[in-house]
Recover the amino acids of this structure.
């Protein structure tokens, strides 16, 4: 009887883990598409000041991406390139390309509440974590899976644990909680303003809030997204960083 019960629980756990992986995979593929071009703004809010960056971004799968800052003028022309596991930054003021080491992934991206890893996605939510459904919740009047992402022992990731909330209807990521290695909640991401971009339904607004800082948050607003654009790996080069428009 004990063996039968153990076998049942093991099969149930394996099924839950597999289901959780497939949910995360479907959500990630829905957001990324095969390729995309996007325009967005990122507003950094602080108790005594705020600033807004205007951004263009291109991506091809999970391995290649460009982020170009168009405004404000002091940051105009700054570019981030991801090419497989390498992250590069072009700084036009000093006319220099800098390779970002893994140790910088936890640092703030351009003074915002997003980390470098949040924006350039060096780590993979699919291959660097194990996945487990831990419950359900309601966000934006939608029933969501609550899924725990635990880093694999060999993975070089910045978070000790992530709880993410995936809508059961359209597989939208409507929120995430980011914990450090000691189990403390560090950042919370909330998504809203669900709308269509072409034939894809997505949240147009994502707000990242640090838990230990009062009156502080960063708001990412998607203005335009085009999927399945004609773009090749050869576009994502260090040479193109200097001429990207």
């Amino acid at each position: 009887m004990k063996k039968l019960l153990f076998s049942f629980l093991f099969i149930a756990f394996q099924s839950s883990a597999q289901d959780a992986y497939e949910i995360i995979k479907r959500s990630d593929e829905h957001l990324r598409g095969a390729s995309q071009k996007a325009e967005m703004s990122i507003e950094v809010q602080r108790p005594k000041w705020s600033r807004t960056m205007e951004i263009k971004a291109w991506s091809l799968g999970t391995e290649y991406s460009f982020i170009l800052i168009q405004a404000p003028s002091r940051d105009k022309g700054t570019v981030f390139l991801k090419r497989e596991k390498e992250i590069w930054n072009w700084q036009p003021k000093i006319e220099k390309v800098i390779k970002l080491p893994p140790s910088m992934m936890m640092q703030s991206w351009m003074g915002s509440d997003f980390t470098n890893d949040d924006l350039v996605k060096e780590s993979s939510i699919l291959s660097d974590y194990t996945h487990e459904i831990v419950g359900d919740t309601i966000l934006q009047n939608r029933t969501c899976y609550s899924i725990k992402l635990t880093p694999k022992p060999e993975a070089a990731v910045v978070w000790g644990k992530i709880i993410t909330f995936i809508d059961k209807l359209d597989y939208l990521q409507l929120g995430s909680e980011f914990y450090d290695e000691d189990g403390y909640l560090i950042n919370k991401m909330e998504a809203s303003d669900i709308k269509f971009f072409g034939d894809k339904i997505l949240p147009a607004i994502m707000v990242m809030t640090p838990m230990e800082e009062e009156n502080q948050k960063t708001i990412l607003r998607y203005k335009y997204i085009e999927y399945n654009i004609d773009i090749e790996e050869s576009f994502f080069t260090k040479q193109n960083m200097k001429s990207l428009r």
